[in-house]
Write a structure and sequence with these properties.
By secondary structure, chain A is of the alpha/beta class. Chain A has 6 helices and 11 strands. Chain A has one domain: Rossmann fold (3-Layer(aba) Sandwich). The longest helix of chain B has about 35 residues. Classes of the chains: A alpha/beta (about 260), B alpha+beta (about 600). At the A-B interface, helix 2 and helix 5 of A face helix 1 and helix 8 of B.
Chain lengths: ~260, ~600
């Protein structure tokens, strides 16, 4: 089975102090630490587990500058076989739709039985690239997947729904799945693995190699664009508790007690 | 003198292109760092409290598990089941392991002194028997050198080895103490005197008859590691387990300690970055007088200085790793001569290794002390990790050779190289002394920028040569009795290596920055070099006053004055700038 996994390199923003840059459409990223998008890491692990059970190949694809080789090589060290980086200044400003066009252009001529992506990206949170890609390639898809079983050319997948519901679906291969966190426990990257793939070539392809024009991608090829990024103003009725962790906890308990939240 | 020869930093200015700096890390190096970090944060950091409580079996379990991602066999050659990593990758791992608290000491003990004696000095059969297990986690290594009566004076060991009748075994008797990893080690690398005379290395298997362990020591810090004594009561050690050559135990012991020393410097850099990250977060969140305490000058001054010293130590250890890598990389580790060749290569940089040990451990003690101070009362309470950092740091100045013995070694090893004709130190000392008499021989420093810093560093080297020469001349026959003076000379030499490594790194950054001094590293270089000059001037005065009087002393002091003339920089503003940068980034980040 030939599996393709689309992965993204994203800044770790959860605990950083973010600053909005001069364009008011993005954040300053110079000081941020970058990693593989968390959902995509689960997708890579899911692909490796399927390959271990079924055989086949895994190709990882990422769109972005040379720094993205870091997440691609990381996936190779975990167990992927090939890596391709799609890169072109024209890709800048692409929304999920334009990004899906870039990925589709690369994937359409590659053998693929199964395409995996993360449910969403940690930075822009579109949650749409995977399903848009499935549409463009004309593949059946399932989103929010938390379990995968393969029998012949049929996949049985579980999907995590709101309210604690779990849905079971079947799809015919080839298909696309967007992977939810928690589907597996991604393995650690070993230094032996890093050494094994240290010399491996990572192919880079631009818009022209993919047969895309400037109008297909970037802002021109997008259906939406970012207008503004801002921190919501502190609203009425909200109280920000200041202090150390302990002081915050103490104040919180006091407030909850006063207002009858706890006994 | 060969390019980049051991000790050459004292005589010439480093060419930045020859020096490895953290900015030279490859994509592979960065992946190694991240892989180590992910494992340590995922598997070890969450159970540090259990490690501290000495939860039965947890540490060996984590050590063995860490072998799966490659944290146990980095320095073991591929031919013997390890990874044969370059010394930079290996240092990167060492810098990351403090994320696992006490795991760091257990891991570095295993990968360093617990395995390297076999890597460098074992014969092929010993390597085949032990190294694959040490790399894959089946075996945990430990190093037993210290005895109750022989600590720093290691060669005074009382443990004996006697060849059995029939010549199949050595019978070992004695006691070793303070053995890290003892409780769960599978092998012990130890030393005994054959027939009470020839100091010799041995590999002892855990299950040897007659081998037993003392009680766990109740330690101030690194409480999660096992530290016990090793009691050898007529232990039969097969003759095949004799390490290297009879009577050559000191070659093994001292060279392995050299590696242990610069690795320790690397671990201290990693630990300092952790303490800084915690402190930065705390200073930003703790509000007093209506402001985060990070806004206050005295807090910024501390944070700025913590960053500066961490950056300097980092420049030093990576330079040293690069030097050793260059010297050892071409040695065929399967050859029977590998031991001798490696020993020569490592010994060449013995001075640099000791410098890194002393500087790294004292830098970390400073950093954790200020980390506790910035946390105020909370820093004294176990709820905050800085309390543990403070306790865990203290041992670094003691083990792998106390900082006192290392200060003596810094000068001793330089003089040894000089006497062997490998370093023209004596000529340079004479030259510096004769320059002292002609005012034109000592040019005045430029007043600002990198030129000033370079010129001051050159002057520092001259001062180092002058004081060493003056003490050498005053005490030709009883130099080794002058410990206080040797200590201060070594302090000056340490500062010289620090300044030289710092400037080489910043110059390399400048090259990549169109010749411009990058703002924060530039601020660090300015503050540090001037501060170091003030310290050097003080030590030099004290040394001169201890060996000369009258006109001779006056001449020396006037030369010193000329060599230490400079325009001070606004350290207050520069330190604030450094602090503001890391406060903004939220962690140690110098760019």
């Amino acid at each position: 089975m030939d599996i393709i996994v689309c992965i993204k390199r994203v800044p770790e923003t959860a605990e950083a102090d973010l600053v909005i840059d001069g364009t008011k459409k993005a954040i300053e990223t110079d000081d941020l630490v970058y990693s593989i998008n968390e959902w995509d890491n689960y997708a890579v692990e899911a692909a490796i587990q399927l390959k271990e059970a079924e055989g086949g190949t895994i190709t990882v694809i990422s769109v972005g500058p040379e720094e993205n080789n870091e997440v691609l090589r990381r996936a190779l060290a975990m167990g992927a076989d090939e890596a391709i980086r799609l890169t072109d200044p024209a890709f800048e400003g692409s929304d999920a739709y334009a990004m899906a066009k870039v990925l589709a252009a690369a994937i359409k001529d590659m053998p693929h039985d199964l395409i995996l992506t993360g449910v969403q990206a940690d930075d822009d949170g579109f949650g749409a690239t995977g399903v848009a890609l499935a549409q463009m390639l004309g593949l059946p898809y399932a989103a929010l997947v938390t379990d995968i079983k393969k029998e012949g050319d049929t996949l049985t997948v579980h999907r995590e729904l709101e309210g604690g519901l779990e849905e079971v679906d079947t799809l015919k291969l080839p298909a696309l799945l967007t992977i939810q966190t928690g589907i597996n426990e991604p393995r650690y990257v070993s230094i032996m693995g890093i050494r094994r793939v240290a010399k491996k070539e990572i192919a880079a392809k631009g818009a022209a190699d993919l047969g895309l024009s400037e109008n297909d991608v970037g802002l021109n090829g997008s259906m939406s664009q970012i207008e503004e990024l801002f921190f919501p103003p502190v609203g009425e009725g909200a109280e920000i508790i200041e202090g150390t962790m302990d002081e915050k906890a103490e104040t919180l308990v006091k407030i909850l007690k006063e207002r009858g939240g706890i006994a | 003198m060969e390019k980049n020869a051991g000790g050459s930093f004292l005589l010439e200015t480093a060419d930045p292109d020859d020096i490895f700096t953290p900015e030279d890390m490859t994509e592979e190096h960065k992946l190694v760092a991240k892989a180590a970090e992910e494992f340590l944060l995922g598997e070890v950091a969450p159970v540090i409290d259990d490690l501290e409580a000495k939860k039965e079996g947890l540490m060996p379990q984590l050590l063995r598990k860490s072998a799966e991602v490659g944290l146990m066999g980095g320095d073991i050659p591929e031919e013997y089941g390890g990874m044969g990593l370059d010394k930079i990758s290996s240092l990167i791992i060492t810098e990351k392991v403090p994320l696992g608290g006490p795991f760091a000491v257990a891991n570095v003990d295993h990968t360093g002194i617990g395995s390297l004696p076999i890597v460098y000095f074992g014969n092929d059969e010993q390597k085949k028997r032990y190294l694959p297990g040490l790399a894959n986690g089946e075996l945990i290594g430990s190093y037993a050198l210290t005895e109750p009566e022989a600590g720093t004076d290691a060669l005074n060991a009382k443990t004996t080895a006697t060849l059995s009748e029939g010549g199949k075994y050595y019978i070992l008797n004695g006691e070793k103490q303070f053995i890290t990893n003892a409780g769960y080690a599978d092998i012990f690398i130890t030393y005994a005197k054959i027939d009470g005379e020839q100091f010799t290395g041995f590999i002892i298997d855990r299950d040897s008859e007659g081998l037993s362990l003392g009680e766990e020591e109740d330690k101030m810090g690194i409480r999660g590691t096992s530290t016990r004594s090793l009691i050898l009561d007529n232990v039969k050690v097969p003759v095949e387990n004799l390490l290297f050559k009879p009577g050559k135990g000191h070659v093994v012991a001292f060279n392995i300690l050299n590696i242990g020393r610069y690795k320790l410097g690397g671990a201290c850099v990693g630990a300092a970055k952790l303490a800084l990250a915690d402190t930065i977060q705390y200073a930003k969140s703790r509000v007093q007088f209506g402001h985060p305490i990070a806004d206050f000058g005295l807090i910024k001054e501390k944070i700025g200085e913590m960053v500066i010293r961490t950056f300097v130590a980092e420049s030093m250890v990576y330079r040293n790793a690069g030097l050793i890598e260059d010297r050892l990389k071409d040695i065929d580790m399967t050859s029977p001569e590998a031991g001798f060749e490696s020993a020569r290569g490592i010994e060449e940089y013995a001075t640099e290794c000791s410098i890194n040990k002393v500087y790294g451990s004292e830098m970390l003690d400073y950093v954790v002390d200020e980390a506790v101070q910035i946390h105020g009362g909370y820093g004294y309470i176990k709820d905050y990790p800085v309390e543990r950092y403070y306790r865990d740091s203290r041992i670094n100045r003691i083990f792998e050779g106390t900082n006192e013995i290392n200060r003596l070694l810094i000068l001793r090893m330089l003089l040894r190289r000089a006497l062997k004709g490998e370093l023209p130190l004596v000529q340079a000392m004479k030259q510096a002394a004769s320059d002292l008499l002609k005012p034109s021989g000592l040019r005045q420093a430029p007043q600002e920028g990198m030129e000033m810093l370079e010129s001051l560093t050159e002057n520092a080297k001259k001062i180092g040569l002058l004081v060493a020469g003056a003490v050498y001349q005053a005490h030709p026959d009883d130099l080794s009795e002058q410990q206080e003076l040797i200590g201060m000379i070594s302090d000056i030499i340490i500062e010289i290596f620090a300044m030289d490594s710092l400037l080489a790194r910043v110059k390399k950054m400048m090259k990549r920055n169109n010749g411009e001094m990058p703002e924060i590293p530039g601020a660090i270089a300015n503050v540090y070099v001037i501060d170091a000059m003030m310290r050097i001037e003080r030590w030099a005065k004290l040394i001169f006053a201890a060996v000369a009087q009258g006109d001779v002393l006056r001449t020396q002091l006037s030369a010193l004055k000329r060599l230490t003339r400079y325009m001070p920089v606004n350290s207050v503003a520069l330190r604030r700038k450094v602090a503001d940068r890391v406060l903004q980034a939220g962690r140690y980040l110098v760019s």
